[in-house]
Design goal:
three-stranded antiparallel β-sheet; about 20% helix; globular
Amino acid sequence: MKRSSFLGRWPFALALVAGVGGVSCSEEGTSSTSSDDSALAQQLQSEIDTAVSRDPLTSSQIKAVSPILKCVESQGNDRYLAHFGYSNSSSGSIPIPVGFYNRFWPSPINRTQPTSFAPGLHADVVQVQFSGHSALAWILGVHFDIATKYSRRCTQTGTGGAGTGGAATGGTKATGGATGTGGKGTGGAAT
């Protein structure tokens, strides 16, 4: 597989130096937040297009796999956690080793992402922390998705609080039974 040595290095470095802020361009329809965001997306697409034209065989073998930004979780102090999944529209698993076609930006490119992609939709397979001052991109196959602090927020779940359980069972005090069992319940909304 032929690759240009500048692919994955200089364009990304130039985008970072230019202060690119980020964009979410997931299949779920989150839109761009600034012109810098569009510049990053255009740069990523340009790199992918160049790679596709230089190595059409590899590109055709991995085009069925694409990353999907599920959501972004605030961790305080302008730090965020991006939750990524992927989709594989083929009928079989597709291996994509960490490298040009399976990498994160900014570096390090390896963020414990999968390297074998089973068919179907797989939500939340990798979580990556990033700064709110930058964007985080997962380039997978010939597609990419970008997380910023403006991307769709993860819904909060929690434990405790009102929820299931139930009313008393076992009778009333007048007939010799206790007030009941069950109580207020378990689960419920986050605090």
